[in-house]
Specification:
This protein has about 375 residues and is α+β, with helices and mostly antiparallel strands. The chain folds into two domains: about 110 residues, 3-layer Sandwich (Rieske Iron-sulfur Protein), CATH 2.102.10; about 180 residues, Naphthalene 1,2-dioxygenase Alpha Subunit, Chain A, domain 1. Helix content is about 15%, strand content about 30%. The strands form four sheets. Strands 11, 12, 13, 14, 15, 16, 17 and 18 form an eight-stranded antiparallel sheet that branches. Strand 5 and strand 6 form a beta hairpin. The longest helix has 15 residues. The protein is globular and about 75 Å long.
Length: about 375
């Protein structure tokens, strides 16, 4: 039996960036309670409107700062002793403390946070203050030329391991078995890139109603097929980006989808998508709408494609929530490099989680088909 680390059941609480909240869920002047990687946390906005995430437990005497706590002047006020904590987690005021110098030792270590793509990302790692890698979406200019990202509430996946959804992205067979897409060609076989991400580039065809349980809907859907170029990149166990480019006959639209998977507890996850559309529709009416309304057709389409992307998880959810991890799967050449992907995922594991057994054998690896092989539509 293979006992290499990557062939053992993967952990749920891994080290990377995750998005447990939408931006709209953290309202100025209020405290938001949430659970992240087994921790009870609070989020609020400071005086500058920046999101702050702290442990819910007050370091003074253990009160829950999100239950009865208030935001005053950009600080969270603990309901137990009226102590005020700023965005750095430092206690800066005690309403009934005579000498503020006595508060210096009262501090909560803040979690590292970035707000992007209408979402709030939190770093989970060995040191919450020092991320091991940057968040791609926080790079200046990342969304230049795209509509403002929109997101939705997403859905709970119970139970699901955090690695299942992103593993699907490099599982070529599942695209037509689960999603009923037609795979026309593989331009870049799934594999690790020089920047450390795991990516694939394919030519696909989406058909309306292909996943519907209703036979009539499936038949009617055959009359509409949408070919697209599919460039997908996995950044980590809970983050992936896909860019779908439609044909020139369809206006050459480009749709970016950011897939966010976040563990809720030791068994369940939550999945959400943020969407945006590249600004390419250059018509007088669209230019006028952007100028007067602050958004054009791309902003409307981004919400349409968001609904489509969310609905497309129906088949996946059925698989993920009923799947078991096999330490010794029997991969086929048509699957994609599942074993290679599992090795890649090891970098996100906590160092002390399931080390290799002594003299563990290497798992069998079956090479995928050549990248130029493709599949006939």
């Amino acid at each position: 039996m293979a006992t290499k680390r990557y062939m053992q059941p993967p952990p749920q609480y891994v080290h990377d960036w995750f998005s447990p909240l939408r931006s709209s869920e953290v309202v100025p002047g209020k405290v938001t309670n949430f659970t992240f990687m087994g921790n009870e946390l609070i989020a609020f906005r400071d005086a500058a409107g920046e999101v702050v995430v702290l442990d819910a437990t007050c370091p003074h005497f253990g009160a829950h700062r999100g239950v009865g706590g208030r935001v005053i002047d950009g600080c969270v006020r603990c309901p137990f002793h009226a102590l005020h904590f700023d965005g750095n987690g430092q206690c800066v005021k005690g309403e009934f403390v005579k000498d503020a110098r006595n508060l210096r030792h009262l501090k909560s270590v803040p979690w590292t946070v970035h707000e992007a793509a209408a979402s709030i990302f939190v770093w989970h790692g060995a040191d919450r203050r020092r991320p091991d890698r940057p968040l791609r979406f926080a790079e200046p200019g990342f969304f230049d030329g795209w509509s403002t990202p929109v997101t939705n509430a997403g859905r709970r996946l119970a139970p699901t391991n955090v690695f299942f959804p992103t593993e699907n992205i490099i599982d070529i067979q599942h695209f037509y078995a689960v999603h009923a897409w037609d795979l026309r060609a593989v331009e870049k076989a799934p594999g690790e890139d020089v920047d450390g991400t795991f990516s694939a580039v394919m030519q696909m065809t989406w058909r309306a109603g292909a996943q519907s349980p209703n036979a009539l809907v499936r038949r009617l859907g055959r009359s509409y097929a949408s070919p697209f170029h599919f460039d997908v990149r996995v950044l980590g166990p809970g983050l992936a980006i896909s860019i779908a480019t439609l044909t020139p006959a369809q206006g050459g639209l480009q749709i970016m989808s950011i897939i966010m998977i976040t563990p809720i507890n030791e068994t369940d996850c939550h999945i959400r998508v943020a969407n945006c559309v590249r600004h390419t529709i250059d018509s007088p009416l669209n230019r006028l709408a952007r100028r007067l309304l602050g958004g054009g057709l791309e902003e409307v389409l981004s919400r349409v494609f968001l609904a489509v992307a969310t609905k497309d998880f129906d088949g996946d959810e059925m698989i993920w929530t009923n799947r078991r991890f096999l330490p010794n799967p029997k991969p086929l050449p048509d699957d994609g490099p599942i074993i290679e992907y599992r090795r890649w995922c090891e970098r996100f594991w906590p160092p002390d989680y399931l080390p290799d057994a002594p003299d563990a054998p290497d798992a069998e690896v079956i090479a995928p088909r050549h990248a130029d092989a493709g599949a006939a539509e």
